[in-house]
């Protein structure tokens, strides 16, 4: 299989968090830029800088649930621990991101606490992100940035040696003298920032590490809400299984699994309040929820450069298209939609109906299949549904197993303590 750069793999994650998230918009990019300036000043190697920037660009990945979203953009983060541990837990399955996961785990590390911790537990980059994150929180987007230099610097200085590592502060103190440091916080793009880091971190793709990578991405979405904690995971295994029923090769079944993991990644751009709403959505709200399929395409677009990912990207972004052309976002019809896209679409609805929702309990397989037969299958494929129905019992077992597994993972007792 081909090689991809780690940068190419990181960009979908960064985009999903920074560009499309309605709430934390630009905070991650700003933190990455501030971190880069400080890291560069401290003489970090290109590899260390690369990890620093990726970690900074996704540092709050673990905090996208309804409960935590409001807490982070405050001046004092009251209990940062859960989102740090959750971020670590989401990313660590993907081997290439293990260091990045470790950096994120301690991105709110207070210098005083660090002094009592075991050697090697905290990566140096965590200290940099901690300070950079607080700098961005102190900046008022309504006010001209150069007029804020003094105030921000003084505020940070108050907490050197209690909260912030003195060496990181010293580097920040130096870089902050120049106007360019402040001006770039708003103006630099993530691509421009990566262009400055001469790190050739290639990654050899294998089926195993693609699975790990996609699982990491799926957790960004699934873990945002208790109600969806098993969704993409279940869709992934269902799609793989349906692929077998329809005679797909082993490799194509694996692609279907990856597509299941990634299909809803665009939900990162949708207010989780809508996903958790206890009742039917209004037309306006539904218009917002529909955006997720478009965002999925936008986020995964870069991956299409790899031949191996081409079908996966199409199947994922087309999972709400319908054979009559009334789906979204493109309104494609049966002349374009292939069996793979329909498999992902069926897996999505089976999984969704058999999950708990705020307004209803999970539906038993018979009820779910009846609803699909009457209301959903006609607009995807009735003949495919007839084949799928033959395997109802097997599908039920698979869904139950996937739900159990995901909830065990989600609730890992020690994870949130
Ligand atoms: Fe944070
Ligand atoms: Fe979806
Ligand atoms: Fe879905």
Task: Quickly describe the structure.
This protein is an all-alpha fold and 417 residues long. It has 21 helices and two strands.
> pLDDT under 50 segments (min length 5)?
413-417
CATH architecture of the largest domain: Orthogonal Bundle
Integer count of domains: 2
CATH class of the largest domain: Mainly Alpha
Q: What is the CATH homologous superfamily assignment of the largest domain?
A: Hypothetical protein af1432
- Element pattern in H and E: EHHHHHHHHHHHEHHHHHHHHHH
| CATH fold description of the largest domain | Hypothetical protein af1432
Q: How does the major sheet shape up?
A: 2 strands, antiparallel
Q: Shape, please? A: elongated
Please give the alpha-carbon distance between the first and last residues. Answer: 40 Å
Relative strand content: under 5%
Question: Which structural class fits the helix and strand makeup?
Answer: mainly alpha
Mean pLDDT: 89
Strand order in the largest sheet:
1-2
Rg: 22 Å
Task: Provide the fold topology.
Elements lengths: L2 E3 H13 L8 H15 L4 H12 L23 H11 L6 H8 L5 H4 L9 H15 L10 H9 L8 H10 L3 H9 L2 H6 L6 E3 L2 H16 L8 H15 L4 H13 L9 H4 L7 H18 L9 H8 L21 H15 L11 H12 L5 H8 L2 H20 L6
Antiparallel strand pairs: 1-2
Helix pairs in contact: 2-3, 2-7, 2-9, 2-10, 3-5, 3-7, 4-5, 7-8, 12-14, 13-14, 13-18, 13-21, 14-17, 16-17, 17-18
The structure holds fe (ii) ion (3 copies).
């Amino acid at each position: 299989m081909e090689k991809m750069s780690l940068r190419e793999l990181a960009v979908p994650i960064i985009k999903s968090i920074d560009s499309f998230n309605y709430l934390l918009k630009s905070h991650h990019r700003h933190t990455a830029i501030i971190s880069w300036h400080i890291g560069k000043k401290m003489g970090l190697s290109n590899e260390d800088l690369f990890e620093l920037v990726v970690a900074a660009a996704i540092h709050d990945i673990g905090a996208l649930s309804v409960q935590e979203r409001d807490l982070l953009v405050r001046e004092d983060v009251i209990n940062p621990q859960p989102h740090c541990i959750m971020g670590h837990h989401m990313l660590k399955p993907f081997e290439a991101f293990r260091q990045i996961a470790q950096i994120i785990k301690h991105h709110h590390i207070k210098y005083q606490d660090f002094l009592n911790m075991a050697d090697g537990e905290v990566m140096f980059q965590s200290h940099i992100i901690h300070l950079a994150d607080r700098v961005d929180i102190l900046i008022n987007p309504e006010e001209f940035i150069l007029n804020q230099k003094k105030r921000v610097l003084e505020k940070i200085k108050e907490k050197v040696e209690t909260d912030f590592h003195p060496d990181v502060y010293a580097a920040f103190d130096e870089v902050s003298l120049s106007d360019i440091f402040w001006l770039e916080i708003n103006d630099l793009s993530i691509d421009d920032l990566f262009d400055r880091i001469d790190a050739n971190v290639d990654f050899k793709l294998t089926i195993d590490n693609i699975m790990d990578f996609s699982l990491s991405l799926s957790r960004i979405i699934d873990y945002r809400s208790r109600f969806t904690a098993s969704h993409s995971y279940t869709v992934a295994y269902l799609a793989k299984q349906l692929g077998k029923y329809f005679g797909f090769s082993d490799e194509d079944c694996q692609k279907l699994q990856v597509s299941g993991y990634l299909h809803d990644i665009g939900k990162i751009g949708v207010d989780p309040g809508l996903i958790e709403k206890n009742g039917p959505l209004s037309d306006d709200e539904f218009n917002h929820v529909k955006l997720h399929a478009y965002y999925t395409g936008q986020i995964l677009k870069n991956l299409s450069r790899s031949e191996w990912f081409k079908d996966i990207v199409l199947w994922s972004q087309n999972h709400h298209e319908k054979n009559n052309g009334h789906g979204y976002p493109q309104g494609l019809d049966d002349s374009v939609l292939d069996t793979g896209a329909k498999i992902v679409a069926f897996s999505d609805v089976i999984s969704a109906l058999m999950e708990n929702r705020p307004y209803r309990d999970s539906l038993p397989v018979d009820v779910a299949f009846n609803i699909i037969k009457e209301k959903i299958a006609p607009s995807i494929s009735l003949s495919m549904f007839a084949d799928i129905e033959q395997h109802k019992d097997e599908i039920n077992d698979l869904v139950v197993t996937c739900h159990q597994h995901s909830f065990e993972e989600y609730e890992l007792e020690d994870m949130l303590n």
